[in-house]
Amino acid sequence: MCTETKAQSNSETLVAESDQTLVGSEAGQTSSGGGPGGQSPRAKLRHLSRSTQFVICAAIILGLTMTFVGKLVSQSIEDATIQTAAETGARYMQNFLEPFVQGLTTVKELPDATIQTIDHLLSSTSLSTHVVSVKIWLPDGTIVYSTDKSTVRKTFPTEEISLALTGKIYTELDNDFEDDNEDAFERSLNIPLYEIFAPLREAGTGKIVAVGEFYETAEALQREINNLRKKVWAIVGAATTAMLLLLFFIVRRDDKIIKQHETALEWRMDEQARLHSNNAALQHKVTTANHEFSRINELTLRRIGADLHDGPAQLLSLILLRLEELENSQGASDEEVLEMIRRAGEDALNEVREISLDLALPEVTDLTLHDALVLLAERHEERTETRVELELDALPDDVPIAHKICIYRFAQEALNNAYIHAGGKGQKLSASHCEGLLEVQVEDAGVGIPTEKPSVPGRGRTHLGLVGMRYRVESLGGVFIIESAPHAGTKARAQFKI
Question: Where is the composition biased (Polar residues) (predicted)?
Fold first, then answer.
């Protein structure tokens, strides 16, 4: 049963975007019922747009205000119209009736001839078309003349004529008539009337000797008042509607601007939060990578020290020991010992050169990534006397120098591992670039990476090299993947967004 071992970079999956909403919309309050149907009017109002809320509030306030204004203006116009008509009628009736009441300063009733003259004038002149009834009151409330003869010489309360006795002209519409006996005749006509009281004065002295009351048909006056009311309400309604529409368009435009700014601010704050989260995650990864690099560098230095101690140092120690033996032989020549010293010196020199070659970075600054990988393969083949299969697609020429060095070191370490642990069997170096993703892969056909811990001290260099490759790749935001299975070889892959 094959077991596949994979080591994958933590940077393969980016930090998920923060789902915290920094600028949230205000939730509507619900009523004690809790359900959508149980929301209070205030909660429902909050769900509406600002312009709609403004229109509703403005309509209520302006509606009440303009209704009050309309009623006040229409009532004022109605009172002014009635008063004007009353004053006009009163002046006319004063001129008509005052000549007939001059004798009331000495007597308390009108002669029959005067009454007949008034009756004749009222029935034969144009007054009969709009004046339906006339009364003349004495200051004590006695009626001395009336179109309705049944009320003549009768006395009634003086409340109605009290204003006229003070010299003022008073008028009222028929809907204000009280249920008095003196108005029975006029009420029986069943037509709209308005009642006018005017003071009648004595010629020369101006003393009020009587009060003239007459009833005039109010149909024309009411039509005029109704027309004026319609005009007033039309003007008030048009003005209210115009103000509401104007304010609505202004508020709606400002509401759209506010919403656009809120949306832009929300997006910017969300983006800021996401970037902050990503930056924090990247900062953490950089800090971790720095720590790991320090640890790997320390381990690498220890490995180099161990290599120098176990290899060239031991060989040099052997050479020195043999040299001492030659000195102690008192000049006797020993060709076998000299040959052994020569071989040990050559081996020490070769090991020092190999270690130096691993530490020294070739001049890749002026080379393209393609040429650098070709050079790496050639040098590896020359050093190990093995073959490396190259499969390089079209690679970008503007790869940053940091990425170029990282890729070179990654491929160099992977090929060294392939030579050491797979005997150079099936070595293959491939690279491709597609849709901004640069991928470099080194594979071999060896026995794979063992899952158990090494039993021999110093043989854990493979795992140390994998950790170093991983953090080297991740430090530049890349993804490191290692795939291996027993007797199925090993694949090391590095991916970069370039």
Answer: 1-23
- CA diameter of the chain: 191
pLDDT at 293: 75
Question: Where does CATH 3.30.565.10 sit in the chain?
Answer: 364-498
Most confident of 292-306, 360-374, 480-494: 480-494
Q: Between β-strands 193-201 and 170-173, what pairing exists: parallel, antiparallel or unpaired?
A: antiparallel
**DSSP letter (8 states) at residue 291:** H
426 φψ region: left (φ > 0), alpha (ψ -120 to 50), beta (else): left
**Phi and psi, residue 135, nearest 5°:** -135, 150
Please enumerate, as own/partner, the contacts of 234-240 that have beta carbons within 8 Å and a separation of 24 or more: 236/66, 236/69, 236/70, 236/73, 237/66, 239/66, 240/62, 240/63, 240/66
Task: Indicate where the chain has its CATH 3.30.450.20 domain(s).
Answer: 55-217
For the chain, what is the mean pLDDT?
Answer: 77
Measured distance CA(470)–CA(251) in Å, rounded: 59
Rounded Cα–Cα distance for residues 134 and 118 (Å): 9
For 364-498, the fitting CATH number among 3.30.565.10, 2.40.37.20, 3.30.450.20, 3.40.50.920 is: 3.30.565.10
Residues 404-423 pLDDT 10s: 989 998 998 899 889 888 88
Q: How far apart are CA 277 and CA 316, in angstroms?
A: 56
**Counting beta carbons within 10 angstroms of the beta carbon of residue 101, is it exposed (0 to 12), middle (13 to 18) or buried (19 or more)?**
buried
> Which tokens go with 138?
């004495």
Q: How far apart are CA 288 and CA 208, in angstroms?
A: 114
For residue 447, pLDDT over 50 is answered with yes
User: What are 227-248's pLDDT values in tens digits?
Assistant: 888 888 888 888 888 888 888 8
3-state secondary structure of 237: helix
Q: What is the pLDDT of residue 31?
A: 41
Helix residue ranges per DSSP H, 198-334: 219-308, 314-328
